[in-house]
Amino acid sequence: MNLSGIIGESHVMKNVFRVLAKVKSTDTTVLMTGEPGTGKELLARALHKNSPRASHPFVSIKCGAISSELLEWELFGHVGRGSAMESRSLPGRLEQANGGTVFLDEIDTIDLSLQVKILRLIQEKYFEKVGGFTSQQINVRIIAATQSDLEKEVEKGSFREDLYYRLNVVPVELPPLRARREDIMLLAECFLEKFCEKSGRSPLKISKRATALLTHYYWPGNVRELENFMERLAVHCEGLQVLPEDLPDKILAENVTEPMNRQVIPREFEWPSLQDMNNMQMNLKDFLEEIERNLLMEAFNTAEGVKNQAAEILGIKRTTLIEKLKKKSF
């Protein structure tokens, strides 16, 4: 699969790439979840470019940035009324994307009445323009994205359950940058090289001390924050090497104090050691899988077999728990 410049060699990203490779040639609906800045739209574009629809348009719509009424007009188009617009039919973004892919970002923000029309679009491939009375057939693939937990939105009644299941045919969870730390410097160096070339300056190298600080940083804004920071360095760094003093105070400060929202490990806690792994005559992969299996079993037993509760105990989504249980043959 051609990832169009998307960088990731971590285990979690390779899993994402494997899922996308399996669905690239299908019309299956994909639901991408993840924090802001994790690259959901970038991956959606890559999926489109690797699909049979690549020669047709890719249309991206950020649902949360448009009011509900205007979003309906934007999506479906409308039929004009009155002397100035008599019989005038204006196309929406769906028509513009016919044959291609529509990316609905922040899908959780649309209201219930519009959710019904999105559901019909996915199920029947038909829609009606605002103010119109004639149904039109459309051929588009839907990729949706959200940073919210749609299962919880369904429980609250703010998101339709039937639409959730229609969207969540293939779930793709994009990890935050802090969960793929082995990718941080790959991305940083790629971004820095790009922006140095763009600004016409000599390539910058990142010192070992600066590398350690960047790798340790929490990156709350994820890949987008890292890219923006590398662009800033390409402009402001005066030497030929990025040093710790070139980094902003927030990165330096985090290497002294932990962020408030990060779990602090108690002093009495002891991590499993290399000796433990050797004593069990396991390699790293098997050892980590066995640890995960035990934690899953403990959470499942604590929740008395209720998957929602077990997922909440583990701090993961129910769908993620189910996938892990299947892999572990529970």
How would you describe what is shown here?
The chain has about 325 residues and is of the alpha/beta class. Helix content is about 45%, strand content about 10%. The protein has 15 helices and eleven strands. The strands form four sheets. Strands 2-5-8-1-9 form a five-stranded parallel beta sheet. Strands 3-4 form a two-stranded antiparallel sheet. The chain has a two-stranded antiparallel sheet with strand order 6-7. Helix 5 packs across helix 7, helix 13 crosses helix 14 and helix 14 packs across helix 15. The longest helix is centred in the C-terminal third of the chain and has 19 residues. The radius of gyration is 24 Å and the shape is globular. It starts with 10 loop residues before the first helix and ends with a helix. About 0% of the residues have low confidence.
Strand and helix layout:
Elements: H1 11-23, E1 30-33, H2 40-49, E2 58-62, H3 68-76, E3 78-79, E4 89-90, H4 93-96, E5 101-105, H5 112-124, E6 126-128, E7 135-137, E8 141-146, H6 150-156, H7 161-167, E9 170-173, H8 184-199, E10 205-206, H9 208-216, H10 222-236, E11 241-242, H11 249-254, H12 274-279, H13 284-302, H14 307-314, H15 318-327
Parallel strand pairs: 1-8, 1-9, 2-5, 5-8, 10-11
Antiparallel strand pairs: 3-4, 6-7
Helix pairs in contact: 5-7, 8-10, 13-14, 14-15
